[in-house]
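LOG
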Amino acid sequence: MTISHLDVNGRRYAWPTAPVVGLCIDGSQPAYDGAPGYIEEAVAAGVAPFFGSMMANGTSRLGDCVVPSFTNPNNLSIVTGRPPSVHGICGNFFYDPESNTEVMMNDPALMRAGTLFHAFQTAGAKIAAITAKDKLRRLLAHGLEFGKDGAICFSAEHADQASLDEHGIDGLLGLVGLPVPDVYSADLSEFVMAAGVKIMDRYRPDIMYLSTTDYIQHKHAPGTPVANQFYAMMDGYLTELDAAGAVIVVTADHGMNAKHGADGAPDVLFLQDLLDHDIGAGAARVILPITDPYVAHHGALGSYATIYLGDTIDRDQVMARLADRPGIALVLSCEAAAARFELPADRLGDIVVIGEQSKVLGTSPDRHDVSGLTEPLRSHGGLTEQKVPVMMNRPTGRPDGDGLRNFDIFHMALNEAAL
């Protein structure tokens, strides 16, 4: 029986008639509100002709990412086609009150919805998902079947450990022709791109997902030589995927902004210290959902935090005091944040706090290792990093200004691309 479409998480997707490649460029701030964008600057410098062709002849729009503008919630939204209120992943890190532990959100058991990849593989499609860091790989692989003729899903970080039974591929380093990259390098993302080209050539998956790391964007602003070189690298591999006949859709999991003062030091509001002073030591617990195992380039400092309060603390009073603090853009109850940002209310604590564009939120100075910040801090997490590029190497009939989200890219590629 010929399959014409699939219904996944309440959305309908057409069956692919050409290979579809979705690329999530971690931290790719677009040109917006007078500020420069990474892709636009690389195109203007003449080093990214394929991106330029998408802007001129395909689709190039601004979209919104999920808030909090962090990696895990946005990648999971992209691969499920739905917001965190559906799939359940609302940060890289969260507090589990039932076990009284702070844990990484990289366990598939925390997911509340299946991925597009699982649904399409079950229906007979060939799937490949390649991510830079292994923290995301387990979530992307949720529900997939591996082994001979199964799905392919691995991280560049652990490329040397890829096996047929667990990742759907072996001999990976020989296939790609690159060594295992350093996790804190642009090479990590290049391995993702190079592997995507090789796997398209050898296996020709129906749906492929490539997810990079924001190591470069945390350190280098749009238009700088290093940033332009990074986008030129991706441009070259995308050119090869385009030549292979793929429908290519590109977005970002979040943007990126400078978060430092004139002296170059991080511009931080330490919420745990502030609350310990205001309402008593231990009366509140501050959780920073940007936290992950790879903090050298951001020191676990982002512009979004959640707060858990003790039972005797007046939430309204705490919210009012926080709202008066310089550097805080928004203070919301968990119920209001869940409604506004489509988040799972049971994983938000009592209060959500979002910093202004240049401000990051911390706990206490002694809990943040910023020794790895070799350049002034650039980070993300808030509303000012919500705008992202949404691009495709085909035109779309979708009207402009219709509330485009980064998690619409597979819907665009499968339903809207002019083939």
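LOG (cont.) second protein
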Amino acid sequence: MAALAAACGRGNDWRTPAQSSQSVSTEASYVQPPRFTAAARLGDGDVEIVGRAHRNAHVQLTSPDGSSLAAVTDSRGAFSVAVPRSAAVRLFGLAEDVGGHQVRGVGYLAVVPSPGQPAVVLRAGTGAEALAAPSAAPKISAVDFDVSGLVVVSGLARPGSAVRLSVDGAGGVDGHANTQGRYTLTLTTALKAGDHQLAVQSPLGQAAARFHISPAGPISGLPFRGARQSNGWRIDWLTPAGGEQTTLVVD
């Protein structure tokens, strides 16, 4: 999704907490960034978010609406935060304090209302990352596209298993699920606006999903817009570089 990677000038990065006076580039210092690892809906409707960071570190989830959630990692570097139930999609950036410096996580956490999966990590220029356990049969978690019609499909399968993506009954893209059972497959040709049918096959089964490509409307106020569709949630959002990207979080 080169158009997204090259875009600039419209967005800003709100992942670092506003009160932080220092930040550090993870690329420049080679500091392992904090990350989200799992999500689950709780009985009261809240969503529990689990992640990893440095041991005994302060972590903060910051939303572009100004709200934030905080936690402290344990001796293994694990943390857990309960995101309150909401009728609307919410986005959060992740940062941790390492020796007085703020280290940002990669991507944005999108917490979506029920039904369907509770959360994914939005990643600029590539597919969203599912926060769920591996699946024996493949699952389609999200579809990402931009104004150029380039499409990335991501989901879950058995760790290490081969997966093959076809669109509208033709063509194919081959790949493998990683050690966490997550796969990301990028189409080699752009798709036109309109309805499309996806199929992902593995030795243990097949998953299918329909999706619709259409341009994102103007984004103002918050740097994203979430809307319910027939089979999931559509999130139009601005990347840190200012490009517009659409993520369809599939139920």
